[in-house]
Protein backbone atom coordinates (compact mmCIF):
# COMPACT_ATOMS: atom_id res chain seq x y z
CA UNK A 1 0.00 0.00 0.00
CA UNK A 2 1.20 3.50 -0.81
CA UNK A 3 1.14 6.13 1.94
CA UNK A 4 0.85 9.85 1.33
CA UNK A 5 0.74 13.14 3.22
CA UNK A 6 -1.04 15.94 1.42
CA UNK A 7 0.15 19.47 1.84
CA UNK A 8 -2.16 22.44 1.39
CA UNK A 9 -1.15 23.30 -2.18
CA UNK A 10 -2.00 19.77 -3.36
CA UNK A 11 -5.53 19.98 -1.94
CA UNK A 12 -6.00 23.53 -3.23
CA UNK A 13 -4.97 22.33 -6.70
CA UNK A 14 -7.62 19.61 -6.49
CA UNK A 15 -10.45 21.85 -5.33
CA UNK A 16 -9.58 24.64 -7.78
CA UNK A 17 -8.94 22.19 -10.63
CA UNK A 18 -5.45 23.58 -11.16
CA UNK A 19 -2.52 21.90 -12.84
CA UNK A 20 -1.76 18.73 -10.88
CA UNK A 21 -5.36 18.20 -9.76
CA UNK A 22 -5.47 14.97 -11.78
CA UNK A 23 -2.51 13.58 -9.83
CA UNK A 24 -4.12 14.39 -6.48
CA UNK A 25 -7.43 12.92 -7.67
CA UNK A 26 -5.57 9.76 -8.68
CA UNK A 27 -4.11 9.40 -5.19
CA UNK A 28 -7.54 9.89 -3.63
CA UNK A 29 -9.03 7.34 -6.01
CA UNK A 30 -6.35 4.89 -4.89
CA UNK A 31 -7.49 5.54 -1.30
CA UNK A 32 -11.13 4.91 -2.25
CA UNK A 33 -9.98 1.56 -3.72
CA UNK A 34 -7.93 0.66 -0.63
CA UNK A 35 -4.65 0.96 -2.55
CA UNK A 36 -3.28 3.87 -0.54
CA UNK A 37 -3.56 5.61 2.80
CA UNK A 38 -3.76 9.39 2.69
CA UNK A 39 -3.37 11.85 5.56
CA UNK A 40 -3.36 15.59 6.05
CA UNK A 41 -2.63 17.49 9.22
CA UNK A 42 -5.35 19.77 10.52
CA UNK A 43 -2.89 22.69 10.45
CA UNK A 44 -2.69 22.21 6.68
CA UNK A 45 -6.49 22.03 6.51
CA UNK A 46 -6.55 25.38 8.32
CA UNK A 47 -4.21 26.80 5.68
CA UNK A 48 -6.62 25.69 2.93
CA UNK A 49 -9.69 26.87 4.85
CA UNK A 50 -8.41 30.41 5.31
CA UNK A 51 -7.26 30.53 1.66
CA UNK A 52 -10.77 29.65 0.48
CA UNK A 53 -12.38 31.91 3.08
CA UNK A 54 -10.25 34.85 1.96
CA UNK A 55 -10.86 34.30 -1.76
CA UNK A 56 -14.43 32.94 -1.86
CA UNK A 57 -16.11 33.60 1.48
CA UNK A 58 -17.42 31.66 4.45
CA UNK A 59 -19.94 29.49 2.60
CA UNK A 60 -17.29 28.19 0.20
CA UNK A 61 -14.83 27.54 3.03
CA UNK A 62 -17.44 25.59 4.97
CA UNK A 63 -18.38 23.63 1.84
CA UNK A 64 -14.73 22.74 1.43
CA UNK A 65 -14.63 21.25 4.95
CA UNK A 66 -17.79 19.23 4.27
CA UNK A 67 -16.36 17.93 0.98
CA UNK A 68 -12.99 17.10 2.54
CA UNK A 69 -14.62 15.08 5.31
CA UNK A 70 -16.29 12.86 2.67
CA UNK A 71 -12.96 11.89 1.13
CA UNK A 72 -10.83 8.95 2.26
CA UNK A 73 -8.30 11.28 3.85
CA UNK A 74 -7.35 10.89 7.50
CA UNK A 75 -7.20 14.32 9.12
CA UNK A 76 -4.51 14.25 11.80
CA UNK A 77 -5.55 16.59 14.59
CA UNK A 78 -2.86 15.85 17.16
CA UNK A 79 0.61 17.28 17.31
CA UNK A 80 2.57 14.59 19.10
CA UNK A 81 5.95 15.33 20.65
CA UNK A 82 7.82 13.62 17.79
CA UNK A 83 5.83 15.64 15.23
CA UNK A 84 6.34 18.84 17.23
CA UNK A 85 10.11 18.33 17.40
CA UNK A 86 10.51 17.25 13.78
CA UNK A 87 8.46 20.21 12.52
CA UNK A 88 10.53 22.54 14.68
CA UNK A 89 13.74 21.07 13.28
CA UNK A 90 12.55 21.53 9.69
CA UNK A 91 11.38 25.09 10.37
CA UNK A 92 14.69 26.03 12.02
CA UNK A 93 16.93 24.34 9.45
CA UNK A 94 15.12 25.31 6.27
CA UNK A 95 13.15 28.44 7.26
CA UNK A 96 9.90 27.11 5.77
CA UNK A 97 6.37 28.03 6.79
CA UNK A 98 4.88 26.48 9.90
CA UNK A 99 2.22 24.61 7.90
CA UNK A 100 4.83 23.24 5.48
CA UNK A 101 7.03 22.17 8.39
CA UNK A 102 4.06 20.24 9.84
CA UNK A 103 3.32 18.48 6.51
CA UNK A 104 7.00 17.66 6.08
CA UNK A 105 7.24 16.31 9.62
CA UNK A 106 4.13 14.13 9.07
CA UNK A 107 5.82 12.66 6.00
CA UNK A 108 9.17 12.24 7.74
CA UNK A 109 8.10 10.55 10.96
CA UNK A 110 5.60 8.26 9.22
CA UNK A 111 7.85 7.51 6.23
CA UNK A 112 5.10 8.67 3.83
CA UNK A 113 5.53 10.49 0.51
CA UNK A 114 4.72 14.20 0.64
CA UNK A 115 2.32 15.24 -2.12
CA UNK A 116 3.07 18.84 -3.06
CA UNK A 117 3.73 21.44 -5.73
CA UNK A 118 5.71 23.73 -3.39
CA UNK A 119 9.07 23.49 -5.13
CA UNK A 120 10.17 26.88 -3.78
CA UNK A 121 9.81 25.50 -0.22
CA UNK A 122 10.90 21.90 -0.69
CA UNK A 123 13.47 21.74 -3.51
CA UNK A 124 16.33 22.46 -1.11
CA UNK A 125 15.10 19.74 1.24
CA UNK A 126 14.71 17.18 -1.54
CA UNK A 127 18.29 17.89 -2.65
CA UNK A 128 19.67 17.70 0.88
CA UNK A 129 21.73 14.65 1.76
CA UNK A 130 20.61 15.06 5.41
CA UNK A 131 16.95 14.23 4.73
CA UNK A 132 15.36 11.01 3.53
CA UNK A 133 11.93 12.19 2.40
CA UNK A 134 10.12 11.09 -0.74
CA UNK A 135 8.36 13.89 -2.60
CA UNK A 136 5.47 13.21 -4.94
CA UNK A 137 5.38 16.28 -7.15
CA UNK A 138 2.04 17.16 -8.74
CA UNK A 139 3.60 19.68 -11.13
Question: What do you see in this structure?
Answer:
The chain has 139 residues and is of the alpha/beta class. It has a single domain, classed as Rossmann fold (3-Layer(aba) Sandwich). It is 60% helix and 16% strand. It is built from 7 helices and 5 strands, in the order E-H-H-E-H-H-E-H-H-E-H-E. The protein has a 5-stranded parallel sheet, with helices on both faces. Helix 1 (8-15) packs across helix 2 (21-32), helix 1 (8-15) packs across helix 3 and helix 3 runs antiparallel to helix 4.
Topology:
Blueprint: E1 2-6, H1 8-15, H2 21-32, E2 36-41, H3 42-56, H4 58-69, E3 73-76, H5 81-94, H6 98-110, E4 113-116, H7 119-127, E5 135-137
Parallel strand pairs: 1-2, 1-4, 2-3, 4-5
Helix pairs in contact: 1-2, 1-3, 3-4, 5-6
Shape: globular
Strand element count: 5
Main sheet characteristics: 5 strands, parallel
The largest sheet has its strands arranged as 3-2-1-4-5
How many structural domains in the coordinates? Answer: 1
Distance between the termini: 23 Å
At the first level of CATH, the class is Alpha Beta
Which segments are poorly predicted (pLDDT under 50) over 5 or more consecutive residues? none
| CATH topology-level name | Rossmann fold
Class per helix and strand makeup: alpha/beta
Q: Roughly how many Å is the radius of gyration? A: 14 Å
Number of helices: 7
Query: What letter string, H or E per element, gives the SSE order?
Result: EHHEHHEHHEHE
Mean pLDDT: 96
Helix content: 55-70%
CATH architectural label: 3-Layer(aba) Sandwich
CATH superfamily: 5'-nuclease
Strand portion: 15-25%
Amino acid sequence: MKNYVLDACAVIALFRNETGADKVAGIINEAFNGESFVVINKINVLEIYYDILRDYGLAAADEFIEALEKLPISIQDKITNPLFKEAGRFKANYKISLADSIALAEASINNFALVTADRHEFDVIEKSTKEDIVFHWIR
